[in-house]
Design a protein that fits this description.
The chain is an alpha/beta fold. Helix content is 34%, strand content 23%. Bound molecules: 5-amino-5-deoxy-1-O-phosphono-D-mannitol.
Length: 598
């Protein structure tokens, strides 16, 4: 869940370069940071607790062409300078940054201690440079020592390693993503200017869009002019093709906005239409695969999981087709129902979520096919799936997922319509909805929600209710409010209130009702009246006004796409609740954007 970034090449400002690039990975983890670079005297290291965004890259003035950097999301050991990466070997000649968890670190640490190695941190990572140092006693070759060390590691890792006496950068991957960015040279004599190796593309997006992906069990060795991919265990070369990615740097920066979260909420003016822009034949093929599968399961985590739950309703209501939803972390318990003829649909913005990957591996081990709905190009999930649909939301940097969710919902609506044999109807509805979202997100509308956030900022609890596809959106609303504003929020199916949750309502408790102009409107309004009768302050998000609402946030009447428009005002409300309470919505406490550990 940490961010890692390294550079080797013709540039002589590698230390400042990796620090600057690392700032684009801060969403990966933001409790501490560190960097190491090679100089004539050996390896220099700087690390500290706090946010990388406050570090000035101009302060790194040493001339160097090899550097690595890391932003940490603590797993083993507290947030201290000692625990920040890079970690060094005893002789301080080897520096390593690491993403993932070394499961057998305790045994390895004891073994290395017995051989005289000294450890300065509580991290699992620190055993890696010592293990490489130990291996170098027999091989002398740095890359070979990294290979042998990696073979002894259990768990998940993505590592970058450098040696004071070697003009190479070595990286290895087992479960944690690593991508190589290739900076092309301008002449035939120097076809490559340098290589960037990172856990995520935004680290090097301003330098190159030409990438090569490491797969699990692979390592790379590069001297900055050429690169060799090989299998960690056998050492056999693994040929790689170069891929041009479509993301642009403009999409990955905040621009005029104070926070990525608000920028990404506003991006929905265009991103929904981009999600709808799919190859129609592919959508029909996938609909056919779902129709013919003997059992379709759909899994995701957090917000992506709520998109899966909404999809269950879309398939049921629009296409009268049943699919089984489970949070990805619970899927293990359902594997008995998988057959080679079954289909697993996995949903993930990052395409790297560990629980989702595990669900995929379970399905594959049963011979079932996997359809992935992802945002990040070239992500592990997208490359391992049998079929992949991209939602084309562009980079989502804020920890709170917003535009990825509406992209996922749009794609599932499209498939549901295709399944019902009405793809064009679905497309028309979604494109109209996309245009209405564009109109809805105007400055006056946003300001109205900002002042509502101001009014409820001292509330202890916020409850959200919905029915049908607005029920998963109520659950998603709660996630949005919880994660960025730290206000206690809970979502419920409206009909469930009188079975317990209604006891929580007190005079003035803000309660949000997500309403559509549909067959369940009367039911959800009745549930809202029940809340009002207990003193709740009712915020109605609805295409139609009702007397029960104390505050009415108008949304377009989007029919079967209502979930998509109803969630957007809640995203805006959550954002302003965070800001008005003095919290940074882009960096919520205890969270990281990509959850690559289980
Ligand atoms: O990258 P993924 O979509 O697989 O991530 C899944 C969840 O971790 C993610 O949706 C999380 O719940 C969001 N931060 C919530 O806004």
């Amino acid at each position: 869940m940490c961010g890692i970034f390294g550079y080797i090449g013709r540039r002589s400002d590698a230390a400042g370069l990796v620090v600057e690039g690392l700032k684009n990975l801060e969403y990966r983890g933001y409790d501490s940071w560190g960097t190491a670079w090679k100089t004539e005297k050996g390896i220099s290291v700087r690390k500290d607790i706090g946010k990388i965004s406050s570090v000035k890259s101009a302060d790194f003035t040493d001339e160097t062409s090899i550097a690595i950097a890391h932003t940490r999301w603590a797993t083993h050991g507290g947030v201290t300078k000692q625990n920040a990466h890079p970690h060094l070997s005893c002789d301080e000649n080897i520096a390593v940054v690491h993403n993932g968890i070394v499961e057998n670190y305790d045994a390895l640490r004891n073994e290395l201690k017995a051989k005289g190695h000294r450890f300065l941190s509580q991290t699992d990572t620190e055993i890696i440079p010592h293990l490489i140092e130990e291996e170098m006693k027999s091989t002398k070759d740095f890359a070979a020592a990294v290979r042998s060390a990696c073979q002894r590691l259990k768990g998940r890792f993505g590592i970058l390693a450098m040696h004071a006496a070697s003009q190479t950068l070595v990286a290895a991957r087992a479960g944690s993503p690593l991508i190589v960015g290739v900076q092309k040279g301008k002449t035939k004599t120097s076809p490559v200017e340098g290589y960037y190796i990172a856990s995520d593309i935004p680290a090097f997006l301003e330098h190159t869009r030409t990438v090569q992906y490491l797969d699990d069990g692979e390592m790379v060795v590069t001297d900055g002019k050429s690169i060799l991919f090989s299998d960690i265990v056998s050492g056999r070369e693994r040929p790689k093709r170069e891929v041009e990615i479509s993301w642009s740097m403009e999409q990955a920066v905040k621009g005029q906005y104070e926070h990525f979260m608000l920028k990404e909420i506003m991006d929905q003016k265009e991103s929904v239409a981009r999600a709808v822009n799919q190859d129609e034949e592919q959508i029909k093929t996938l609909a056919k695969a779902i129709r013919e599968a003997q059992g379709t399961f759909i899994v995701g985590c957090g917000t992506a999981g709520k998109a899966c739950m909404a999809a269950e309703y879309f398939f049921s209501v629009i296409a009268q087709h049943h699919v089984n939803f489970a949070p990805a972390s619970e899927f293990k318990l359902h594997h008995h129902f998988l057959k080679p003829e079954s289909l697993l649909i996995v949903v993930s913005q990052s395409g790297e979520t560990a629980d989702v990957l595990e669900a995929m591996h379970i399905a594959k081990s049963k011979g079932a096919k996997v359809l992935a709905v992802v945002n990040v190009e070239g992500s592990t999930i997208s490359r391992e799936a049998d079929y992949t649909l991209r939602i084309n939301a562009g980079p989502e940097r804020a920890v709170a997922s917003t535009k990825a969710l509406t992209g996922q919902l749009a794609v599932f609506l499209l498939i549901a319509y295709a399944l019902a044999g009405k793809l064009q109807d679905g497309k028309t509805l979604l494109l109209e909805t996309a245009a209405e979202i564009n109109d809805m997100l105007n400055p006056r509308y946003v300001e109205r929600i900002r002042s509502l956030a101001e009014n409820i900022k001292t509330a202890r609890d916020v409850f959200i209710i919905g029915k049908s596809w607005n029920y998963p959106m109520a659950l998603e609303s709660a996630i949005k409010i919880q994660e960025v504003s730290y206000v206690h929020a809970e979502g419920f199916a409206g009909g469930e209130l009188k079975h317990g949750p209604i006891a929580l309502i007190e005079e003035g408790t803000p309660c949000i009702a997500l309403v559509g102009k549909d067959e369940v409107m009367d039911d959800i309004i009745s549930n809202t009246i029940e809340l009002k009768a207990r003193g709740a302050q009712i915020i109605g998000i609805s295409p139609v006004k009702h007397d029960v609402f104390d505050e009415w946030i108008k949304v377009p009447n989007a029919g079967n796409a209502q979930a998509l428009v109803n969630i957007i005002p809640v995203q805006v409300l959550a954002y302003f609740l965070a800001v008005t309470r003095g919290k940074n919505p882009d960096m919520p406490r205890n969270l990281a954007k990509s959850v690559t550990v289980k």
